[in-house]
Each structure stands twice: as structure tokens, then as C-alpha cells.
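Model it.
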Amino acid sequence: MDIRNKNVLLGGAAAVVVVTALAGVFLGRSVFAPAENHAGESPEQHATELGGAAPSDEHAGEEGEHGDEGGEHAGEAGEVAMSEEMIKQSGVVLETLSPSLLAQEIVAQATVVSAPDGEAVLTARAAGTISAIRKRLGDPVARGETVAVVNSPEAAGIAAALSGAKARFDQAKSAFDREKRLFDQGVTARQDLEAAQAELTSAEAEYNRSSAASRAARVSDDGTSVFISSPIAGRITEVTTATKLGAYVTPETILFRIADPTKIQIEGAVPLADAGRIAPGDVATVETPTGGSITATVRSVTPSGNAESRSASVVLSVTKGAENLQPGRFARVVIRAKAGAGGAGVFVLPDEAVQNIEGQDVVFVRSEEGFDAMKVQTGTRSGGRTEILSGLEAGQVVATRNAFLLKAELGKGAAEHGH
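Modeled.
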């Protein structure tokens, strides 16, 4: 073998030795090297070495906390935050719960009317012409306030009679005082004193009668006019066609009608079969056409019914919220008769108060922050009313009309949390 071939063989053998050595070093480090000890490292440091995210303890223990909350809010299906002002603007109607059964409820159609002491009819009081009109339809009126003036010859007659009676009274009093002094001095006889006293008594009676007539007619000081004034405070609800400047009126001519909006009552008709179950003091709910709900109390029930309509009249007194009712308006009344089976823990609400959320019936109960959607068990439904068998307590305030708005708000809030 020549020298050139020998050198080539030696170079190849050296290269093989170098590659083998490098492979042994690599295998020694990767395969046969002892495992590194991470006992002193934190999970975060180890994760950093591996290039992964460090585990977080932020939610540790949350499962236990939520588990405790589940027992506390087991009956709730959600919450809706809403201020008092927002409730008014949205038109959500509230009702305070009191135990009842559908069998106890009596529904009646009723009319809002003025109470006997809450309405006044103003007449001219004297014949004459209207010289002034100081109030118009809808204006507020204070008790004793003048609303119109009538120029009347009768006013002059009333004023003249009062003036004459006053003069006779003054004269009779002077005569009595003089006779009394003379009698005390022994100058006149007792008979003269007694005659003077009888004249004084008669003159005083006539003067009092004339004064009362003048006050009743509200005659002006100059005796030319009669003031038409209101005996109650309220608002002008009617101005008749006879009430015009310069119009001639008679004493019985009706000029104005005035009503006190705080003094109203509700008159309803109930079937004769139900009238016997109703008693004074029974609580009722008045549902107005505008969507409101007002609490009322039965004042009286007619002892006998109308033979033609076969119904009895029920009179209700409004305990709160009378300003929301107007005489002449129609209303639906739900009377909770005390007579009959009790319904402790059972309540009756309008159908729209019960909303269904994910297959569960709920009622929205007023809370400090807004409303809690409480799960309920419903019973009998009839006439737009639903019995609530469980899930609510007496005294709670719940949403009735427009409760669907709260359901929509609850759904919107759930959707936002989902994102």
C-alpha cells in the first residue's frame, strides 16, 4: 500500500472516533444523567422552566363559598337592581301580600263616585244677573272661597231687613237699660221693666234671624250683590251652561259643581249569592283602567238586592291612593271575603305577576336593591288570577302589572354576565 492510501485510511478512522465520542457525551447527558431535583422550586418556577402557565390559587375555595350561598338563596332565580324612581317610570305596579284563596275572592265591576261630603252643588241663592265669574273648570277652590257674584234685588231686601232689625234691637236695648236704671232707683214699676225686656227679646230674635239670612245668602256690604262661595275645598268639576256673565238666574239655578278628590268612594254590584259573604271591614283591591292597584275597605253592603239585576250594592272606602281615582271612572274590584275557608300561606295574584323563567314560575319580590325573582308553586288559575301555594310570605311587596319588564331585565343581565 502506498503512502497516499495509508494517510486516507488514518484520517477516516480519526473522524469515526470523534463522532463516536460526541454521541457518547450526548447520550450520557440525556439518557443516563440523574433526574434534576425540583424539591426546592415553587410551582411557578417549575412552570417557567417548562414554558407553561403557572397554576393560580385565585379561585381556590370558591366552590365551597358558592356551595354555602346555594342554601341561602335556594328560592331565588335571580336579582334585578331597580331604584324607586325607575319603578315609577317603568309603570311596575306593586301589591302587598295578604293570605287569600280564589274561593274567597269576589270580583265586581264598580264605579268611582264622590263621597256624600266630598261633592257640592252651588246655586245662585238669589234671583239676579251674574256680574262676575272668578273660577273656571278644573280650578282649585278653597272652602268659603267666592267663585261668582250675582247682582240681585233680593240682596237689597235682605240687607234692608238686616239693617232695620239691627236698629230695632239697638232701640229696644237702650229702652231696657233705661227702664232698668229707673227700676233700680224705685221710679218705675216692675211691669214697665218687664215690658221693656220682652221688647228687647223680640228685637234680638228678629235681628238674629236677619243676620242668619244675610250670612246664608252672603250679601255684600253694600247690599247689591250675593257672593256664591264653596262650602268645601276641591276642584271645579262642572260649570253649567247657565253660568255666563250677564245671564239672569233664579235661586235654584245650578252654577257649579265642586268635588274634593280626597273624599271618594267606590260603588260596586255583586251577585246576591255572594253578598252574604261580604262584611264591613273586608279588604279589597281596586284595579284601575290605567293599570294601578289601590287598597280599599268594604264600608257597607246593602241588606237587600235589586230584584231586576239580582245584585247587591257594595260601598268601598279608599284607605290610600284616592288621588289616583277620579269620579265617574270604572274600576274592577276584587273583594277578599273573610267568610269561608282560610288560606294561611296561600296568596292570590294577577296572572301577569307570575313569570316563567327557564320552566320555573317566579314572582318578583321587592328588595332594598330592587327585586328578587322568587321561585313559587302555583295552584288554581281562574278569572285572570292565580293561587300561590308556596314560595312567598305575608307582608311581602311583589310586582303585579308589568312584571314582564323585570323578567326582560333579568334576562338581559344574565346575557351580559354570559359574555
